[in-house]
Every structure is written in C-alpha cells, then in structure tokens.
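Table 4 source record.
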Amino acid sequence: MHCTWRSIVIFLAGLIITCGLNACGSAPWRFDPGNAASPTGVVATGGDKQVSLSWAPAQGAAGYNVYYSSVSGMAAGGGAKVAKVTGTSLQVPGLENDTRYYFAVSAYNSKGESALSAEVSAVPAAPGGFAQADLAGNWRFNALVTGVAPRWLRGSLGIGSDGSVSVTAYQDSLGGGAPPAELFTSMTLLPDGTVLQDGVAASFHGTLAANLYKDLMVGTATLAGGARMLVVLQKSVPGITFSAADIRGTGKLVAGPLAYVYHQLSAGGIPEWEYASCQVGQDQGVTYLSLNGPTPRALPGSGSKVVGLAITADGVVSETSYPGVLPQPAALISQGIMSADKMTVVATATDASGTPLLRIMQLVHPPTVLLTSNSYVLSDLAGRYGVHELYGAVPGWGYGDVTVNAAGGMLFAAFRATGGATTPAGYTVAMDPQGKLTAAARSAFHGQFAYGKDLMVATGNDAAGAAMLSIALRRE
C-alpha cells in the first residue's frame, strides 16, 4: 500500500509541473518567455554576389528573421525575408555585385516578433586587388558641375581607414565656402576598385586607379536640384615632393621641350570641350602648338610663348600670362594639382567669359625621357577600365566599364547614364607614337593615353552630339 501511495504522489507532482510549464489553465505562475529583445551588434560583410551577416544573441529569442532590400529605411516585414534562422549568423546569396543592400534582423518567440535591429548595409563585389585601406589618406579634389547652378568645386579632404570623410577645405566658383551635403559622406572601396558613398551622397559612383600609388580617383554624381558632377580626386603621397624640374623642358642635349596636351570641358550657357597641344621650354614658358574646339579658336600667342608655368613643393601648378602676347588664352590655371607620378595635372578655372571649366593636363613624356618607338604601343591599351563621363549640351553623366583589346577595340559593359542603364556602341581607337588617340567612328574625338599606361582622357562629342569629357582609369 505504501508503494502505491508513493506512486500516486509522484504522478500528481509530475502532472502539476507539466501543466505549469505549458501554461495550463489560468494559474498565475505559468511560464512566460517575455517579449524577445531586438538584436544588436549586427555586422554585414560583402562577398562575391553575397553578404555575410552576424549579430549578438537577443534575450528571449527562439529564432530570428532577416530582412533585406536595395532600398534603405525598411519597416518590419519590408523587403525580402529569410525566416526562422536558428543561429546568429547567415549568408545571403544571389545578390547583385556593386549594389548596396540594407539589412535588419528581428528576434521572435512564442509571444511574437521583436522590433527590427538597427539597419546595416554592405555591397557585394567580385574579388579584386583593392582594399578599403587604399582610400585612407589626404586627398585634393577638382570637380565640374553642369545643369543647375553650373560651377567648379575644389578643395581637400581626409579619408579614414573606415571610409569616413572629413572635408578640410572647400570653395566653388559661385563663392561658396561650405561643401554641399551630398558631395561626400562615407566611402566604400570594393575589391575591383569601385568606390561608393552612402546616405545623401549615394548617387556617387567612382573608380580608383590600379596604379603604383592608387592615388587617382574619378567619380560622377547628382547634386541637389539635379545638377550633374564629374569629380577628380588626387591623393597626397607621403615622401613625394615637386620642383620646377617636373614642369620644364630639358633642352636639345637631353629630351628637348616638354610636350603636354590638355582636355577640358566648360559648363554654363554653351558647354564646350577644348583640346590643346603645347610644349614647355627650359624657361618654363609654354607655347601652344594647336587648339581645337567645337567652335573656332584663335591659337594663343600665334606660335609665341604665351604663359609661364610654376609649381610648389606640394604639387600646385599655376600659369602666369606673358604681357603683350596676343591673343591671350581664355583661361589661366591657378591651382592645378600634379599627380604623384608627375605626369598629370588636374585643375579647375573660370575663363574670360565667366564660364567654369575642368582641365586635365597630361605630359606626353617625362621631362628627361626621349620618346622611343615603343613608348606608346597600341597593345598597351589592352585591359579593363572604369570610365566616367560628363556631358554638356544636355547636362548629364555616364559611368561603367570598358574593355579594350590589343587592336584598340573598345567594348562597353554595365554602363549607366543619367537617364538609366544603357550600353554605348563600341568603337575602335588608333594611337600615334605620342599616345594620341583617335576614333574614326566618333565625331571630333581627341584622346590621350597616359605614359604610365593607366589613364585615358578624351574630349569630343558623344553619340548625340553633346560636348563630352571622358576619363578612363585602368582597373587591372
């Protein structure tokens, strides 16, 4: 009998415990898991067509839901959803490379779903030779804005190892002293050299050059009111200084006059391109050899020396006109920035009519180096480039990839313009022994390949006949 009563007691105790654990009846001591807390510490890392997510365990969570979208500002239930994730990490596959995706995580249990975590973002990208640290440093920039409030912009900024941007100096041709909020925010460098920004500057799309110093970046963006911008950024490389020897000829006993060309685009009432061929003597005096544009231009100086070049130790290039020389050039450069390889100068200026412009000057050869038969070989063009263009007549920009074969054939891919995705027709370029590029299929096309084999700059008319400045940086 004793054994029987003991069995009954054990049975009743077990029944009571089971009932309590399952919230049996309306007993006040039934089990309550409480509301699940929102996850914290969410981290998103981009990979090739995928993003890896991780987060800290949330109190009261039985599992997690992951939401994602290519549009920021998701509400609960918005975007795509990966439901019932049991761990605290996830790989989201099947994403489009070079597109920013936004992610948020919720926790759930038997009482329901928590609020979303703080939103994070990442950009999937194909493997490549670039790392975020390549952006870190001090940069100077020159930009041209077309369309609404046409103007040039120039200044300097610092980029942190995390991509944070701090503008340290700024001015524009309209008298502005503070940069537009949508100019620079935080920069993300993808492994293939693509540079993106977030927040109000999310329209920015840039390319970092795969040269020795990784010191040249070009980008396009849309500013407030629909204005279109092409910007060139140049990194200040520690240990590199500049002198007058970098911008003058070396005489017949060495390499002769220093040859350079420039391409420029103006904004304003009648945007136009301009292409010039020049040479610099030992006295740093510049002679214009040719000058071209969509409307006739008088050759500055008519064969005489027109301006003198000067340079500071930190690479700021300026021009001073020679008095009494006619005709004078329409614009003088006061703050051009020389690249770390000492072969390119980027400048903004305002011409005599008050029109803002962006000019890219390229030395055809270093001051002390004679050109040889293999200094510029067409097959050197072969490779993949990030191309960025600004158009004048119908203000707009374009960017994308272009692949060039050993015969000069150019094939565009993944190209986007102001109005949306598009793919320009390919064409073929020819190159002379001084790196000058021509294209029979393009109207008034003038181009120059860099001595360092990493840069192509061109002016002319686009397929619609609009004035155009095109800059292509080698990606690999």
